[in-house]
Amino acid sequence: MTTSYSVSATSAPGGAGELSVFGSSIRFDGASERDGVHPGPAELLCGALAACLLKNVERFASILPFRYSAASVRVDAVRDEKPPRFSRFHYELRLITPEPQARVSLLHKNLRKFGTVSGTLQLAAELDGDILVVESLDD
User: Looking at the DSSP assignment, which residues form a beta bridge with residue 8?
Assistant: First the structure.
């Protein structure tokens, strides 16, 4: 079985870009130099990893089951210059959960094993991360 995905994007001279999918639009920076306002391709790729992790927290909450009341994630990437490529992605996933550490570890194992974006990225670059159990996402 396969699943297909499709997005459309446009850009104008100067780099103003817009990505469209399911009737939603995301403006992005397609300029040769970063504009510092809109996400560029690198930030969108990090965002795809973040969304993958959070989507799978929700998915495994029902499969395992796993209780949580909130989740957030930060993704950092390292880009090499020659050749230009991402060499490392690191994430810090923060959860508010009453689950014991063994269950958190099981969730983490499943996130790493079954995430589509994370699975693809770990074939191309180093991918590592941590899950922190917190009382508040502001911690």
Answer: 20
Give the side-chain half-sphere CA count within 13 A for 22. 1
Please state the pTM of the whole predicted model. 0.94
Q: Looking at this protein, which amino acid is placed at residue 46?
A: C
CA distance 8 to 14: 19
- Structure tokens given for 131: 């899950």
Nearest CA to 95 out of 63, 53, 46 is that of 53
Distance, in Å, from the CA atom of 64 to the CA atom of 78, rounded to the nearest integer, reads: 33
Low-confidence spans in the chain with pLDDT less than 70 = 139
Question: For residue 83, is the peptide bond before it cis, meaning its omega torsion is within 30 degrees of 0?
Answer: yes
Helix (H), strand (E) at residue 44:
helix 41-63
The CATH number of the domain covering residues in 41-133 = 3.30.300.20
* Amino acid 32: pLDDT: 87
Domain ranges within the chain, ordered by starting residue: 1-39, 41-133
- Predicted local confidence at residue 18, as pLDDT: 96
Phi, psi values for residue 134, rounded to 5° = -130, 160
Neighbours of 86 (CB within 10 A): 17
